[in-house]
Amino acid sequence: MLTTVTVAKALIEFAGLLLLGQGLVFLLSFGRHESNPIYRFLRFLTGPVVRPMRVITPRFVVDQHVPAIALFVLFWAWVALKFWQVVLAHEAGLL
Q1: CA 7 to each of CA 28, 36, 41, 64, 93: distance values in angstroms, whole numbers, following the listed order
Q2: Gyration radius of the chain over CA positions
Q3: How many angstroms separate the Cα of 90 from the Cα of each of 24, 87, 95?
Q4: How far is CA 21 from the centre of its chain?
Q5: Is the pLDDT of residue 95 over 90?
Q6: Is pTM, for the whole model, over 0.70?
Q7: What pLDDT does 56 receive?
Q8: Long-range contacts of the stretch 63-66 (C-beta < 8 A, 24+)
Q9: Each residue of 37-63: pLDDT tens digit?
């Protein structure tokens, strides 16, 4: 079980870093992010995280804000998994 939690935490970290990278490229492209191939590639990779957030969020939330909401949800999922990982490691006698 500890391995499963660790792998899930690592996947969340990866998705979060992809979202941060996408945001950084957005800031550095000065409004021409849609023509940037790196931005489009990162948007493709973060799609499986951002699309479910669009379904969950209400319609009045602007589409531009959905990646930030996804990052917020990923952060709290990471915190929960880290806590669970520490509890499982303590139960296994690893801490």
Answers
A1: 31, 31, 24, 29, 19
A2: 16
A3: 37, 5, 5
A4: 11
A5: no
A6: yes
A7: 93
A8: none
A9: 999 999 999 999 999 999 999 999 999
